[in-house]
Structure formats: C-alpha cells, structure tokens
Amino acid sequence: MTADALKVSGITKSYGHVQALRGVNLSVRPGEVHALLGDNGAGKSTLMKVIAGAVVPDEGTIEVNGTTQSFKVPKDAQDAGIETVYQDLALAPSLTPGENLFLGRELLKPGFRGRLGMVDRKAMNRRAETELSQLGAKIQRYDSEVEMMSGGQKQAVAVARASLWGTSLIMMDEPTAALGVAQTAFVLELIERVRDERGLPVLLISHNLPDVFRVADRVTVLRLGRDVLTASIDDVTTNDLIAAMTGVADVDPNRSHA
Fold first, then answer.
1. pLDDT tens digit string along 23-62?
2. Do the Cβ atoms of 68 and 146 come closer than 8 Å?
3. Neighbours of 106 (CB within 10 A)
4. pTM
5. In what order do the strands lie in the sheet with 202-205?
6. How far apart are CA 168 and CA 253, in angstroms?
7. Strand 59-64 relative to strand 33-38: parallel, antiparallel, unpaired?
8. Is 206 exposed, middle or buried (0-12, 13-18, 19+ CB in 10 A)?
9. CA 127 to chain centre
10. How far apart are the first and last CA of the chain?
C-alpha cells in the first residue's frame, strides 16, 4: 500500500495547565483534499502549527510519505515538502507575484552577474506567469505589486507559491475567509486544481461547511483537543459534522472509514 502523505499519531501539546491537543491522530492520503474541522478551541490551529514546524509537540510522531520526521522549526517542515498558506497569506505586498513566489529563494541572473548576487526578476515573473496560468488565475500585469490585486488573485499567488515548493503536502488555513462569492468559487477551484492537476494532497482547515462539502474527499473533526470523527465526505451530513464539533451527540469515530 502507498504510504500516507501525512500521518500524525498521538500528538499532545499543553500550555501550562491547558491541554490544546490530547493524543490527536490524523492521516492525509496522497492526492486527496482532507478537511480539518473544529469549533474555536478545538485544537486546529495548534495542530496546524505542529505540522508546519512552528510548534514542537510534547508527545507523538509525524510521518511524511512514510518517513518519521522531527520538526523543530518551520524550515524542517518545508524541507520535508510541506508548505502552508496562512489565512493572512504572508505575502509581501510591495513585491510582484514572481518576487513573492521566490521570496527567500530568488533566482539569480546567469553568469557573472549571478555570481555577484544580482536577482533575475524577469525570470521570476515569467515563472510566476506559468504557474498562475496553470492554476487558472487571470492576472493582467505580472510586474505589478501584489497589493494592487484582488483577494482571489492574492490567494492564487499564495497557492502558486505553496504548490511550487510543496512536494508532499499543502496546508491551507481558512482560504475563503472574507472573500466574496465569486472569489470563493475561484479559490475552491484552485484547491481542486492543486489536487487534480498537480497531484498534491491538501489539508484544508475551514469553518465553512459548504466549502468542505464542495472540495473535500475526507474530513476529520477535532473537539477539545481530540479527533472525534474521521470519515469520507460522502458518508456524513452537515448534521453529523455539527454534532461532532459541538458534542451534542455521541459520534463513533469508527462509524465511517474511507
């Protein structure tokens, strides 16, 4: 069998007397969109930071494509092929799409000028145009600053950067928050393109159940720091997910396996 793209087992994390994660288990399969749901305080943000290398867990293991990893800093996760699209996108607003895609990994001019450290902005913008076009983004000028772009275009730049460098997993934190209807539809199409055309698994952290039912293949629900349900999206209803998130009814986490 093919190894999971990501497998976390028994992850715990406490901050003083507060237990943010209490033995969480999560697996993301190759080429799937896996939604991570939970109410405020469920542990989603802490788990995301653990997977991104920004938080070191107290206990538990992380495997990427079958290899056990130990993330101490975000670069460790990036070296393992995990890229994160944060809710604030973490873009440099005064830079072009190409400069954002290669931020910290700039392309240098060929020959002597490259040895002097001269950056090849035209090459980066050309690559950005290729990457964003493949994702279906329509950007008129690739030499314009990102701050001049719409919310959907900015999200496309962030997703293109993640899919350019992420070889194992893309994590997306509330990617449609504060977007309008048309921009939300575009971002959901981006997620599907990343999965279907690039073959990259996506871990989607979201509160938006319609978005989850639109693009997710499987879903995991966290409640009070524990995973309480993992199922194929085809095997659950909105009421099932709300019940699992709120704890208003007992949900058997083994009821649905996919």
1. 999 999 999 999 999 998 899 999 999 999 999 999 999 9
2. no
3. 16
4. 0.87
5. 82-85, 169-173, 202-205, 33-38, 218-223, 226-232
6. 26
7. unpaired
8. buried
9. 22
10. 14
